[in-house]
Amino acid sequence: MRFLNGTSRFMAAWIVVLLAQAGAAQAESYVLPSSAYLTGANAAEYQTNVRVLNQGTSAVTVTATFYDQRTSTTSPASPFQIGPRSQVAFDNILQSVFGRTLGQGAYGPIRFDATGPILVAANVNNVNACGSGAVSGQWLPAIAVSQALGAGVIGQLAVSSSSSSGYRTNLVFMNPGSAAATATIKVRQGGGALLSTGTIGPLPANGFSQVALDSGVFPGVAGTTDTNLWLEFTSNQPLLAYATMINNASGDPFAVVASADNPFAGSYSGTYSGSENGTWTASVSSDGTMTGSAISPSVGAFSGSGTMSPTGNSLVTTSGHASGTDFSVTWTGTFVLQAGGATGSGTWVSTAGTSGTWSGTRH
User: What is the per-residue burial (b if ≥16 Cβ within 10 Å, else e) of 155-179?
Assistant: First the structure.
């Protein structure tokens, strides 16, 4: 291979980009996947209390929008400001901020658009548990829209064939994007055996779906008693998701938020050709981190890292040193899932201006 030492120019340009990003406002959108102000079985009354914390040293402005699933309406609230290192509190937010009444039975996600980074946490409570005025509930965080998942797992689920013992589970999926989203969900037993497959969606922009795990959406789950279940999902658009497990005897709930997954995780190998021919190997972790190395007939092995998106798009930069010169090679391409495996192809470009193509498979 022929290499060109463009490292200094590359690093200088990259430092400029990083400094520009550091000085830019970090505006972000966060979504509380679910909120409620309504009555339920056994005289239950559900309310949602929200706390918004500004960890920064400058004031931020926040605009909250409620997507009411009962009426299919969108309700933006007046913007509010949070001072540096300060918190604001909204008890029973659907009443105090969005003007809903208990009789209206409102529920749905709330989006918080902020001019800077914030933390949003909520507790969704039954304030009349057991019909006695006792309070029971669950903590639920708002999630940055940038962290919505095209592929994810929820690591703990439970169902019971009895309504008076064990647990029942509700699944919530919310689409924070502007395009409709459809998710395929696979419910598995603890050891990985497939129990059921179901589809949720298409969910419109800011759409929301809450379904019981033992509903008809997931055939074969009803009538099962198991506290050792989990699920994996993929979606054509990034989603926010969590599960609420409720004790059938006490009514006490707890929430489990989805974690990132990557259907392309595994080990890969392949070949490259063009200005030079060789082989490469790589591995992809469940969070999409891709590490790899290539073998060049002229300079030997060189390695690097990059990312593999849940949709199969890959970007890896490898680097090495030969003949007193540093070099780097950028590899880009796309993988496609096929019958449990994955195949991909793309192009590579070196800092010397040499280039070519590559292909490979997961094994």
Answer: ebbbbbeeeeebbbbbbbbbbbbee
CB contact set of 163 (below 8 Å; sequence gap of 6+) = 248
Q: What is the pLDDT of residue 324?
A: 73
Give 222-259 pLDDT, tens digit per residue: 999 999 999 999 888 889 999 999 988 877 889 999 99
Banded model confidence at residue 14, pLDDT cuts 50, 70, 90 = very low
CATH code at 264-362: 2.40.128.120
Domain ranges of the chain: 27-147, 148-261, 264-362
For residue 8, the tally of other CB atoms under 10 A from its CB is 9
- What DSSP assignment string belongs to 205-237? TT-EEEEETTSTTSTT-TT--EEEEEEEEEEEE
CA-to-CA separations, 216 to 107, 202, 224, in angstroms, rounded: 22, 17, 13
CATH class of the domain comprising 148-261: mainly beta
CA angle 301, 303, 308 (to 5 degrees): 140
* Long-range Cβ contact pairs of 315-318 (< 8 A, separation 24 or more): 316/282, 316/290, 316/292, 318/292, 318/293, 318/294
Q: Do domains 148-261 and 264-362 have the same CATH topology?
A: no
Query: How many C-alpha atoms does 162 have within 13 Å on its Cβ side?
Result: 7
DSSP 8-class letter at 175? -
CATH of domain 27-147: 2.60.290.11
Closest among 246, 200, 189 to 44, alpha carbons compared: 246
pLDDT band (50, 70, 90) for residue 11: very low
| Confidence class for position 340, pLDDT limits 50, 70, 90 | low
Mean pLDDT on 307-316: 90
**Diameter of the chain measured on Cα atoms:** 80
